[in-house]
């Protein structure tokens, strides 16, 4: 009995199913990603380091392009953005979804064609709109009634801007309450149920300088089932038919947002992209045929599923503490580089790298170095019993919503980002240093 449990645990530790496809075992407990040993990355670039497998990002972009050949796939920059990421996404033929002047300017200055960018945001600042119009962003997604007059005024009577409308279709989906956006009890979009969307659409159609190209919805994030997307799509097609009937306008685009769920630990469910593509297409054609509507061009906006599984966080163990029944393994990062466990209770599967251990496995909680008891990276995970300061821990599926949500808490500084590809490693984003903090702090 005990033997079975142990071997299952050991097998779990060896399960690399959520790691990048390029991951290889090296002798003596090492692991390589993109042909580069993670322990070498740690030595060369120090820790914590976020390792991004360029081949995995590009491969995932291609998977989307293959699964959705007739759609526009826009990478959601909020998951992670850097100049290299902008280039990879552009070279793979994707568009981009941004939600601030910061993301927009970074993308455009890194060479991304502005006409292939969509700007989102529930509260667009004057700077966001100024940047969008100055840089010639492809579409602005209107999220609330007050934006209509604001955008029209900013565009000016002689100007022209393509816009979409974010509709709340009344579908509840997503991995956590904080990331469910398809129902009326949250801040995004215009309601289908209370008629807010319909009213906004009439007003937009009355603004000659705004060209309404289509509707948008994003029902939530970390969704692992196809069904909520189909329900949302049906409602969106219904609204498009009503717009045609009421205003005589046939909209040419339907953006179904992102939210495609991934596995963070072996055995967890992930959204089946092929099934999603097939069933969305079928539902779209069926709904449009029934309403005698021209089939709109489909847009999708995946973020997490493009970059999440391509990232690995590498930490150095600083302290191991035994308290009562518990073992705490403290590493040199924490909630400032990954707030997701604290925010959403997400579970990760860290793993010892860089040395082999024959010690029995025991349950430990991996914590960060921040001044809060809630600074937990991975609660109750199985790690070798001889884990000690100086060891390296690697956490897979670290590419999305970790660094992009990183903070300056305790002035620990945000980690370096290192790209690995075909056997070589290069620094993409340097580590944040005390000098960075000092240079922004200009008063006394
Ligand atoms: N489109 C829109 C309009 C969005 O708001 C989002 C995500 C996406 C696309 C991309 O969703 P994805 O495919 O990445 O799920 N911080 C949370 C996730 C927040 C998602 C926000 N919006 C997390 O760490 O789970």
Please tell me about this protein's structure.
Helix 5 (101-109) packs parallel to helix 6. The model is unreliable at 1-12 (pLDDT under 50). Strands 4, 14, 15, 16, 17, 18, 19, 20 and 21 form a nine-stranded mixed β-sheet that branches. Strands 5-6-7-8-9-11-12-13 form an eight-stranded parallel beta barrel, surrounded by five helices. The protein is an alpha/beta fold. It has helices at 2-14, 38-45, 54-67, 83-91, 101-109, 126-135, 146-155, 196-205, 227-247, 273-291, 304-307, 340-344, 434-440; strands spanning 24-25, 31-33, 36-37, 49-53, 72-76, 95-98, 117-119, 139-142, 161-168, 190-191, 210-216, 253-255, 297-300, 311-323, 326-331, 351-353, 361-367, 376-384, 392-396, 416-421, 424-429. It starts with a helix and ends with a helix. Helix 5 (101-109) links the parallel strand 6 and strand 7. It has two domains: 8-51 and 311-440, Beta Barrel (Lyase, Ornithine Decarboxylase, Chain A, domain 1); 68-302, Alpha-Beta Barrel (TIM Barrel), CATH 3.20.20. The protein binds ligand LLP. Residues 76, 78-79, 97, 120, 179, 218, 221-222, 257-260, 301-305, 340, 344, 401, 405 line the site of ligand LLP.
């Amino acid at each position: 009995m005990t033997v079975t449990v142990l071997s299952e645990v050991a097998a779990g530790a060896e399960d690399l199913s959520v790691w990048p496809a390029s991951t290889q075992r090296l002798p003596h407990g090492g692991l390589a990603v993109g042909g580069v040993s993670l322990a070498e990355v740690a030595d060369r670039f120090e820790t914590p380091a976020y390792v991004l497998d360029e081949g995995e990002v590009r491969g995932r972009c291609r998977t989307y392009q293959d699964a959705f050949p007739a759609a526009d796939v826009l990478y959601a920059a909020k998951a992670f953005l850097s100049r290299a990421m902008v280039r990879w996404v552009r070279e793979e033929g994707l568009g981009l979804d941004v939600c601030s002047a910061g993301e927009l300017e970074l993308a455009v200055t890194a060479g991304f064609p502005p006409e292939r960018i969509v700007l989102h945001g529930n509260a667009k600042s004057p700077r966001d709109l100024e940047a969008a119009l100055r840089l010639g962003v492809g579409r602005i997604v209107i999220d609330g009634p007050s934006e209509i007059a604001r955008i029209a005024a900013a565009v000016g009577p002689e100007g022209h801007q393509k816009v979409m409308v974010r509709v709340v279709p009344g579908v509840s989906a997503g991995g956590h309450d904080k990331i469910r956006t398809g129902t009326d009890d949250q801040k995004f979009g215009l309601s289908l149920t209370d008629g807010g969307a319909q009213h906004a659409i009439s007003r937009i159609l009355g603004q000659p300088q705004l060209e309404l190209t289509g509707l948008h919805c994003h029902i939530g994030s970390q969704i692992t089932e196809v069904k909520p997307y189909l329900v949302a799509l049906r409602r969106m097609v219904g609204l498009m038919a009503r717009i045609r009937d009421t205003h005589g306008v046939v909209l040419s685009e339907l953006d179904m947002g992102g939210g495609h769920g991934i596995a963070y630990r072996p055995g967890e469910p992930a959204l089946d992209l092929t099934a999603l593509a097939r069933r969305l297409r079928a539902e779209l054609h069926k709904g449009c045929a029934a309403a005698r509507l021209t089939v709109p061009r489909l847009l999708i906006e995946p973020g997490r599923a493009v970059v999440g599984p391509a990232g690995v966080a590498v930490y150095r163990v600083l302290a191991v503490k035994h308290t009562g029944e518990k073992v705490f393994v403290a590493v040199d990062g924490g909630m400032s580089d990954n707030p997701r466990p604290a925010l959403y209770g997400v579970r990760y599967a860290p793993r010892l790298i860089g040395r082999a251990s024959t010690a029995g496995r025991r349950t430990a909680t991996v914590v960060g170095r921040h001044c809060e008891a809630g600074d937990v990276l991975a609660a109750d995970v199985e790690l070798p019993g001889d884990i000690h300061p100086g060891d390296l821990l690697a956490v897979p599926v670290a590419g999305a919503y970790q660094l992009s949500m990183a903070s300056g808490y305790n002035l620990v500084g945000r980690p370096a980002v290192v790209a690995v590809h075909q056997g070589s490693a290069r620094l993409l984003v340097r580590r944040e240093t005390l000098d960075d903090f000092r240079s922004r702090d200009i008063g006394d």
